Amino acid sequence: MKAVVRTEYCAPEALRVHEVERPEPGPGDVLVRVHAAGVDQGVWHTITGLPYLVRLVGFGVRRPKNPLVGMDVAGTVAAVGRDVSRFKPGDAVFGACDGSYAEYALARQDTLVPLPAGTTFERAAAVPVSGLAALQGLRDRGELREGEEVLIFGAGGGVGTFAVQIAKALGARVTGVCSGAKTELVRSIGADHVIDRTKEEPTTGSRRYDLILDTGGQRSLASLRRILRPGGRLVLVGSEVGGRWTGGAGRQIRAMLLSPFVGAKLRGLLSTTREADLRHLAELIETGALTPVVERSYPLDEVPAAIAHLRAGRAAGKLVISVA
């Protein structure tokens, strides 16, 4: 099968498509014929091995444990292991796996759910990593309640476009912060108020929020705390700033250490793949409360270009790799 492979940590532009042996499912595995795969910042981290903390948490210290790339997947079941009872060949599924930038990928059955009725493989592939981060950041770490005011930084990006819609589904009033080129998009997916960050700095105004979801990592913790209401919550969802050792995780650690002393709840987020949450996202899609925003799809041999576009910060919503 064709797959994007790297045997050493490298820059994304060094990635190439190779012919490799098709994997065989173990007892609890599902072999997915990949139709589409999502692109997110986490993929860049696993390709480059940066920050170094990525290597220490299980991806391989000197070189990648898994030479294949990609986490989000949508496709059809090609084969199942003997202990798999939830799926059969031919089922349309989406979820998370290791190595989705390939014609076939292995996944555990508890990281896949049926494809939402009426959606496409490309849209479904955009959901798992970013959708789970938005849902768990708002509902679990952010404790968002109906009627509250939430401010979302990076509202026009991959996590942000999910967060705006999920916050609305939870009954919140949403203010989205994004670049001028994305304001109409953010408004169209349900934001009650949109701030063009190139024209207005939201941390210097008089408005206060019950919850801030920061997907950008560009502003100081002090400036974000200033616009929280008493007892408010700040949730940091990743960050692409920071040193080579801890990257954005260093900022999350500082926030959690500071939290007991400032009269607000400052929290980081490490989202996880939960079957129940994937099913919940699928239900939101089926009811029309959530529509994955896909700016563009790339063929398998243009994965480096897709990652470069993502890293430049220009993507409106999600980017997807179209495999078959």
Automatic annotation (TrEMBL):
One GO MF term: oxidoreductase activity
Q: What is its main location?
A: cytoplasm
Compartment annotation: Cytoplasm
Matching entries from PROSITE patterns are given as: QOR_ZETA_CRYSTAL
Q: Which SUPFAM superfamilies match?
A: GroES-like, NAD(P)-binding Rossmann-fold domains
Q: Where is the Enoyl reductase (ER) domain?
A: 10-321
Q: What cellular component terms from Gene Ontology apply here? A: cytoplasm
| Pfam families for the chain | ADH_N, ADH_zinc_N_2
Alphabetized UniProt keyword annotations: Cytoplasm, NADP, RNA-binding
Q: Which InterPro entries match?
A: ADH-like_N, ER, GroES-like_sf, NAD(P)-bd_dom_sf, Quin_OxRdtase/zeta-crystal_CS, Zinc-ADH_QOR/CCCR
Describe, as the record does, how this protein assembles with itself and its partners. Answer: Homotetramer.
Name this polypeptide is given: NAD(P)-dependent alcohol dehydrogenase
